[in-house]
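Tokens as discussed.
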């Protein structure tokens, strides 16, 4: 079964950018520390628009994603950051390379 990739694109309210990034970094550390099914969790900021943030997360499988989405710290992160975000887009994909796909 291929790994699952979550790509989250967030357009932040400019006045909330620094607060959001600080909270996202804390969330990232918590996820990586507590979820062995999370292989990768990156935060990037677009060079031409500092209010456009992308999260790139890779999980072992659907079950790992489901566990992640149901954690108390995920619920807290979403509640705390919702007022900081103007727009949010989540794209879910299957990993298309590596040993799990034979490519």
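Sequence:
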């Amino acid at each position: 079964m291929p790994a699952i990739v979550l790509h989250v694109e967030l357009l932040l309210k400019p006045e909330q950018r620094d607060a959001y990034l600080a909270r996202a970094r804390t969330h990232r550390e918590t996820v990586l520390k507590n979820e062995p099914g999370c292989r990768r969790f990156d935060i990037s900021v677009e060079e031409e628009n500092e209010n456009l943030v992308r999260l790139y997360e890779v999980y072992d499988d659907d079950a790992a994603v489901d566990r992640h989405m149901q954690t108390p710290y995920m619920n807290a992160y979403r509640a705390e950051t919702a007022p900081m975000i103007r727009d949010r887009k989540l794209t879910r994909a299957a990993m298309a390379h590596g040993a799990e796909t034979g490519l």
